[in-house]
Amino acid sequence: MKNAKGQILITVFLLLLIVSVLGGALTIMWMSEIKTSQAQNDATRAFYMANAGIERGKLILLGDVTTAAGWYPTLPSPNDWYLLTGYGRYKFKISAAGAGKKNISAIGEALNSSNNSLAQRRLTVKVDGITDGADAGSEDDDFTMTIMTDSWKELTSSDAIP
Fold first, then answer.
1. Does the global pTM surpass 0.85?
2. Would you say residue 19 lies in a domain?
3. pLDDT on residue 162
4. N or C of the chain: less Cβ packing under 10 Å?
5. Cα–chain-centroid distance for residue 14?
6. CA separation, residue 70 to residues 32, 61, 91, 122 (Å)
7. Beta-carbon count within 10 A of 97 CB
8. Which of 59, 74, 46 is nearest to 155 (CA)?
9. Which domain, by its residues, includes 70?
10. What are phi and psi of 107, to 5 degrees?
11. pLDDT tens per residue, range 26-54
């Protein structure tokens, strides 16, 4: 009888050990999945921030920049960051790329609550001209101007803004 009780006790301990190891492994896998998912979300936020920099550069090239809060009527320094509190920040640079062409390069960063960078993305757009989409013979209302781009390239993190 005593021998049977000892065997049951050992069996219960072995089952508890197996369940504990499996539970620990599942917890580690879930934590890894959560971290991977958060890193992807941060990278996506950084991409959208870089895209915001590209869009602001396009507005400046179109001359459609207002003096509302956060907008500048003149070209800002390439070192100026535009901050969206709790979300991220971006900066951009417009540079010449040949006859009548411009490059707009932007860096976007996802930030944590302490404004530390979590992820960074870089984008470059080559602008090959600004056209007025008004029909021939119609009144030009200056709301139909568009930017014609011949490329959209996402740079790797090792690439620098030119």
1. no
2. no
3. 41
4. N
5. 48
6. 38, 17, 13, 21
7. 16
8. 46
9. 31-155
10. -120, 130
11. 999 999 999 999 999 999 999 999 888 88
Six-digit token string for 128: 């090959």
pLDDT at 131: 55
Q: Residues 89, 162, 104, 95: is their CA dihedral positive or negative?
A: positive
Residue located via tokens 């530390």: 116
24 assigned to some structural domain: no
Whether the CA torsion 79, 82, 85, 87 is positive or negative: it is negative
Q: HSE on the CB side for 106, CA within 13 Å?
A: 27
Alpha helices in the chain (DSSP H): 2-62
| Count of the separate structural domains present in the chain | 1
List the structure tokens of 72: 């500048």
Place of tokens 């000892």: 6
Distance in angstroms (rounded) separating the CA atoms of residues 87 and 43? 12
Q: Which amino acid is at 92?
A: F
Across the strands, what pairs with 50?
A: none
Q: Which amino acid is at 78?
A: P
Q: Is residue 138 part of a domain?
A: yes
